Amino acid sequence: MIGFMAGAGMLTLLLAAIGNKKDEICKGIQIVMDNENEFYFLNEKDVRQIIEEILQGKPEGRPVESFRLHEMEKVLEKSPWIRNAEFYFDNHHILHVVIKEKKPVARIFTTERRSFYLDEQLGILPLSVKRAVKVPVVTGFPDKKIRGRSDSALLRQVKELALFIQKSSFWNAQVAQLHITPTKEFEMIPLVGNHTVKLGQAEELEKKFYKLLVFYKEVLTKTGFNYYGTIDLRFKGQVVANRKAEVVNIDTVTLKKRVEILLSGSTIQDVEKRQEIEEPGKTKQKSVNSKRNHETVVINNAPKLSAETENSGPKGKTENTNQTKMINKKAKEGIETARQEKLKNKADKKPKAVMPSMPIVENAEEYY
Question: What would be the CATH architecture of the domain defined by 104-318?
Answer without folding.
Answer: 3-Layer(aba) Sandwich (3.40)
